[in-house]
What does this fold into?
Amino acid sequence: MFLKVVTLIAALVVAINDGAAQDVPWHLGSNIANAAAPSAINTLNIKPGSHRVVVAVIDSGVIASHPSLGGQLLPGYDMLSAPNNLRGGRSTDFSPDERDARCGQRLISGAFRTHGTEVSSLIAANGVDGVYGVNPSAKILPIRLFGACSMSRNDLLDAIAWAAGLPVAGVPENPNPANIINMSIAGGLSVCGADLQRLINRVIDKNIFVVAAAGNNFHKPLPEPANCNGVISVGALDAENHIEVYSALDPRTIVYAPGGGKRLSADAYWAVNKLMIATYELDFLGRERSATLERGVGTSFASPIVAGFISLWLSHNPNKRPADLSRDFSKFLRSVDPHEKCTECIPKGLAASSGVMQP
Amino acid sequence: MKRYQNVLKYLGLVLFGFGVTNHLVLADPVWHCSRSEVQVADASDDFTLAALTLEREVIRISLKDLYVVYQGAPVKMSGGLPLSACVISNNSNLTATAMQSIGVRSATLKVLARESTQSKSQVHLVQDEMAMLACITKHHPAIGYLSKATHTEAVGPCF
It folds into this structure.
């Protein structure tokens, strides 16, 4: 009997400790010594610098009313053109369309409605409702590119150009050009198209960092836009520092970050292995309400963690350029468990140090 | 001394036997399904959001579907596509456990194996686990079983 009571108390203590650790998203690290997930980026105690950093999120639009994004959004744009745009064409309304669960009679994943909001929250969420972006001082520039129906390549090119402050025919000038462009999208051509590469070169020449998801193609080579030169391609890790089974596997992948996946067997708070995101869900009456959920899975969610990390670095070092990355970023890189299927890959993850705040 | 050695040998054999038997009993099959959407396009306009929901991404199969399709009866998925079922013919342990878990008798399995040679059958006989994975991929939407959870572009655990 005594043994049972002791065991019960011990279990309660473990549960309470786990509960405390879970107050902070596991991918950012932990305030408890030696309790951080092996793949955590450990930015928890690094305060943002004084410089404003704009991160463009080219995605499915952002729901501006989400409390976790209050005060974090800049005026964005809906770059989806007709006929794919159910609203009829491009406009300043960057929120997702409520009809985005359906294209004609074809039912689409609900991700189209919430994806851009979730991605933005990983970069710059303000901490309300327990969602913390890597850099809560960053400003999000939302650019809607996806709806329920398909998008065109021209829309993608225009979205990147507008994010960078380049002129786009028929679209007002962007008054807040981005320092970083995040694209949690994948597909297109297996070799970066000349049109996309030319544009990305122009964007990088303007000292803008371009970050893209490596794609969820289960260990195949990088798709566009991650396969373009100069793009910071981001693969997904599980909490234990292993490359996720769904992530693209390609020696050109620049960096890996937590992307979530199947629950892990470890007895730790991070074994949930999903990313905490600001999103929306339906209540039992079918009404949509804002929510904080640990459910992010995909290279979509690894990419904004890297975009957020770079924005944190830029907030202290505003003069850093993409060309500085290979030299200056090495101090934040650490080894990732190599994958047997890619012997030429030398995967690297991110781990913050005080160097983030130093020139 | 020799007597003790013999006892130990006997005990070792018993433990080894128990281990093997136990291993066979514990080798539960993991049911695998086709993924509902497979991204294989190489087209300039074909981009998608790079988020996954691994649990939801495979086709949705009920236990009844599982039981019915392995009885050789047709099962239609939403959209009207027939569900295919893959069976490993020469891995008796895994197949036996899988079929036992859904109540399919060995006599039924023999009938299914015979029917699998007919082109209209939705049951496909394969040689090993690698071929099982290929079978589920090829006959989308399809179902099968493997000894451990496996994720590929086209296949994932069902439940």
User: Anything to note?
Assistant: The radius of gyration of chain A is 20 Å. The longest strand of chain A covers residues 288-296. The domain at 2-357 of chain A is CATH 3.40.50.200 (Rossmann fold). Confidence is low (pLDDT under 50) at residues 11-22 of chain A.
